[in-house]
Design brief:
931 residues, 9-stranded mixed β-sheet, 25 helices, Four Helix Bundle (Hemerythrin (Met), subunit A)
Length: 931
């Protein structure tokens, strides 16, 4: 942990303003050559002025020794606050994407000088112009904002004027006010959860903070990283050099965390971040709800611009203030002591200093603030108290600029947008940042979100767009290719059969494009894509009876020799091109409901097989983990302790005992009680429905909508699925022969690996010890789940525990979906690559939380059969989809697993099924309790 006293050693500062302003390649356009910083270097940009400063330099280049181009990079670290030295390497790259202009950082950032990363007020249309020294011409921006070119445009003043030395002092006082809850709430989260948050930051990472400011809160994260003994390179980005230097010195010294300052703007920071190679994991910090100074569209564009600089697996921690009580927000920005008022009004004095003349008389203005509930933002203005004219005289030309002000006119200086949880969830969805963690203050007013750039992103489906879009297909293909071309190691694993009841992996590489090609040819009445014989060997896989594998439904013939993988991949690419042509050529291929249904079926078929192939991979000892996506337990650093043994440092997670929810179906809305939905394939060809592309699709076993089924009696259902630890306790409690933990024990889940009496859980990352995976839901067969329920019933006189029926579980899931909004943390859709419980179940002892679908599918006690025998109509496009499994051996499974696509996971009518004694699927269970 850092020392409690301020360091006397001057910090390392990297001058991005000078470096990227005069770098010839900076203006070279999107094709500029990119050089990468690799993991074994500690970087500074080319021509980068790296030095130290100890003086009150007012941010002036002339007053600090920042004009030194290092010939001996190690010298910088000899004088910095780190005991270890890395080489400093030039950065000559810039992002290949167009930069956003810098936006101002408002007072929501309790890091005071983070506000100074601004260029202009966010409601000014004026483009920022660089000054000669690589900064921005703030005086020109002030005049331009007060005298906009378009007549009638409201006048504004750049937020940056608030942050002179005195303004920073006032702002620091604001952050200590009880009324200004944002800072206190963020500190509360970091004091409570910093250890858990930094578990997601890999060892040997670069951490870049945008608008670092005072580092009062950041030090809590840095101390947690130090406790974890992670080697971290931390960069604080800010535009106020004095505050940046002062803040870094206040950190003291760390043993493992190295610190340096980045003097520059967001755009220059964007370029700096893009300079790191793919082998360097990165985490961005954006604290203090600084996002609030951007409007909704600007926020999306800003996150999207930085996302392009991130590599797969990189993180971003973002603080966001919610849409809270209007009065609380109002007082937070207009405190009774008047410190906020003084802070805002001081900006007018600063304008006079910047312009070098008495331009504004602050006595003719007052601070006016309001919270706009409809828009969800706090608005700060200067209100003109008497009509007058502002006069600016150019010192070089003596030309006058006159600006007329009307009495009561409002001049905006600051906006602070607030975000509901639904809005922030949608923001991350729109920018394709996968949320992997959320930490909320005890008052539920403020959140820290941890989002990650992932190799693909499955967006939430739109209700009235049942046809998968081209973008959705592309993301699905990314996922399929990652799994089949990276996690299946070629060529050694292609013919591997980790589950004897299934084909080798190679079959599925051919099956997926073949199924799509067959469906396209049947609907469009076109020939198969060559080689056409693939339709003979790859059309349908096998699903033998677990008890008697010689019994199997009809399937494609198994060749003596499978085709080469290169031939299969080439075929796959041709079929994909064929589909894209169908999606993009409405003249040749007008999109009818029948064609759209075929596309829907092929999409979900591939998504289902993606999950199938992954549960096969979990059974293989040869599986490569998903590239660049580290599991939290793998992110921790192993360190040598005093006995020279390896000790893993990871925040322990515990799960509270499951609670029970009482549900009385008789009291619920009828839509929650119904099963299935109406979607008859034969209607596709009728005149009424032929062009219907908005009604949802479903598989044949989901039709029809059943409204007359007798209601279940009132029941109690567990809040979450049974965990590995709980299932292990059952095995040990019933272990009469001492063979409970033998792999051959029929009650031992196939998801477990048992070696020397120790249990690990199989995953795509390899075996995971119970100290990590014990709190995951247990993946097991239906028969094994029933065994647990029967045992538990013996432990409680007069109470019977069973698996829920399909109707009961459907009601519970629909009730949750109707009452709990999405948070972006749902445990499906590859938001994580292992079957964890949802975050709230892991933390909360509250009896009000019911874990929804995800993690693992939920077994039911209902045999798979038509919802309504009279209403069931076999699919004409895919007649073998359901009917082969109406055999009393397959049981209905509802919900989703971590590897389930959102299109499937969020359609409550979707019905999955597996043989009751099939042990390999990603399926767990929760119980119902009956008196």
């Amino acid at each position: 942990m850092a020392s409690s006293f301020s360091s006397t050693i001057a910090p390392t500062i990297i001058d991005l303003r000078q470096s990227f302003a005069r770098d010839e390649k900076f203006n070279a356009g999107p094709d500029a050559k990119r050089q990468k910083i690799h993991q074994d270097t500690y970087p500074s940009p080319p021509h980068c002025d790296v030095g130290t400063n100890n003086n009150n330099n007012k941010g002036s280049n002339a007053d600090v020794p920042l004009d030194l181009v290092l010939e001996n990079p190690e010298a910088a670290w000899d004088s910095a606050d780190s005991d270890s030295v890395d080489d400093m390497t030039d950065v000559t790259s810039l992002t290949d994407e167009t930069h956003l202009h810098d936006h101002p950082h408002h007072r929501d950032s309790s890091s005071s000088s983070s506000s100074s990363n601004s260029g202009s007020n966010n409601n000014s249309e004026m483009e920022q112009e660089p000054a000669a020294d690589g900064g921005f011409d703030l005086p020109k921006m002030i005049l331009s904002s007060l005298k906009p070119e378009v007549e009638g445009t409201p006048k504004t003043i750049p937020t940056m004027v608030l942050y002179d030395d005195y303004g920073l002092q006032l702002f620091d006082q604001i952050t200590y006010l009880q009324e200004y809850y944002l800072t206190q709430e963020e500190i509360e989260i970091l004091e409570r959860d910093a250890d858990e948050i930094v578990d997601h930051i890999p060892d040997n990472s670069v951490v870049v903070e945008l608008g670092a400011g005072s580092l009062r809160k950041t030090v809590l994260l840095l101390n947690a990283l130090e406790r974890k003994r992670k080697n971290i390179r931390y960069y604080a980005l800010d535009l106020m050099l004095d505050e940046l230097t002062k803040s870094l010195k206040s950190l003291g010294q760390f043993a493992n965390v190295k610190t340096a300052g980045l003097w520059g703007t967001y755009d220059q920071g964007l370029t700096f971040v893009s300079s790191f190679g793919s082998d360097v994991p990165k985490t961005l910090l954006w604290l203090g709800s600084s996002i609030g100074n951007l409007n909704r569209q600007e926020s999306q564009e800003f996150i999207a611009s930085y996302r392009k600089t991130l590599n797969v697996g990189d993180n971003w921690i973002i603080g966001i203030d919610r849409r809270n009580d209007a009065q609380e927000i109002t007082v937070a920005y207009n405190d009774p002591k008047g410190i906020t008022r003084d802070f805002i009004m001081n900006g007018l004095d600063h304008i006079n200093v910047l312009l070098g003349q008495e331009f504004i008389d602050r006595q003719k203005f007052r601070y006016f603030a309001q919270y706009n509930v409809e828009v969800g933002r706090h608005e700060a203005f200067y209100q003109v108290t008497e009509a007058h004219e502002l006069v600016y005289t150019s010192p070089s030309t003596a030309e006058e600029i006159r600006i007329a002000l009307a009495k009561d006119e409002l001049i905006n200086v600051e906006y602070s947008y607030k975000w509901s949880l639904q809005e922030s969830t949608q923001l991350f969805e729109d920018t394709q940042m996968t949320k992997v963690g959320q930490w909320t203050s005890s008052s539920n007013r403020y959140d820290l979100h941890l989002v990650q750039k992932t190799p693909f992103y499955f967006k939430t489906p739109t209700a009235n767009k049942p046809l998968p879009s081209q973008d959705e297909w592309i993301e699905l293909w990314k996922s399929w290719d990652l799994v089949t071309m990276n996690m299946i190691q070629h060529p050694t694993m292609l013919l591997e059969k980790p589950i004897a009841l299934r084909h080798p992996f190679l079959f599925y590489l051919g099956h997926i494009p073949t199924f799509l090609d067959i469906q396209l040819s049947r609907v469009l009445q076109e020939p198969f894509t060559e080689p056409s014989y693939f339709s003979v060997i790859f059309e349908r896989g096998i699903d033998p009876d677990v008890e008697d594998p010689t019994q199997c439904h009809s399937h494609s013939e198994v060749p003596d020799t499978w085709p080469e993988v290169e031939e299969i991949v080439a075929f796959r690419n041709r079929v994909r091109e064929r589909l894209l042509k169908v999606l993009n050529d409405p003249v040749t291929y007008p999109m009818t409901r029948r064609l759209a249904r075929m596309v829907f079926m092929a999409f979900e078929h591939e998504a289902m097989h993606l999950e199938t192939i992954i549960y096969m991979l979990a059974q293989s000892p040869n599986t490569a983990p998903p590239p660049a996506i580290q599991a939290p337990w793998a992110v921790m650093k192993s360190v040598a302790d005093d006995t020279s043994s390896s000790k893993a440092i990871l925040s322990p997670l515990v799960v509270s005992p499951a609670t029970w929810f009482s549900i009385d179906p008789a009291q619920l809305d009828k839509d929650i009680l119904y099963l299935g939905h109406n979607d008859l394939e034969s209607d596709d060809l009728t005149h009424t429905h032929k062009q219907d592309l908005e009604s949802p699709f479903g598989w044949d076993n989901e039709h029809p909508l059943v409204t007359s089924r007798p209601l279940p009696s009132a029941f109690e259902i567990q809040s979450r699925q049974v965990t590995n630890n709980e299932y292990l306790a059952y095995l040990r409690a019933t272990d009469i022969s001492g063979k409970a933990l033998l792999p051959t024990n029929e009650r031992t889940p196939a998801s477990w690996l048992i070696q020397d009496g120790e249990v690990s859980v199989k995953s795509v990352y390899g075996p995971v010890p119970l100290e990590v995976s014990g709190i995951w839901p247990v993946s097991c067969s239906n028969l094994q789940a029933n065994g647990y329920a029967a045992w538990l019933s013996t432990q409680h006189n007069g109470v019977t525990y069973t698996l829920p029926t399909e109707h009961e579980l459907s009601i519970a899931f629909k009730l949750r979906q109707a009452t709990i909004p999405k948070t972006g943390l749902e445990t499906y859709g590859f938001r994580q690559w292992y079957p964890t419980l949802d975050q709230q179940s892991l933390r909360s002892s509250s009896s009000t939380h019911f874990s929804g679908p995800g993690g693992l599918w939920d077994w039911t006690s209902t045999a798979f059969a038509p919802l309504d025998k009279d209403g069931f109509k076999i699919s004409t496009l895919y007649p073998g989809y359901s009917t082969d499994f109406f055999d009393e051996k397959h049981m209905v499974v509802l919900g989703a697993s971590w590897a389930t696509h959102p299109r499937i996971a969020e359609r409550r009518s979707f019905r999955n099924w597996y043989q009751a004694n099939y042990p390999f699927v990603f399926a767990g269970f929760r119980l119902v309790k009956r008196a």
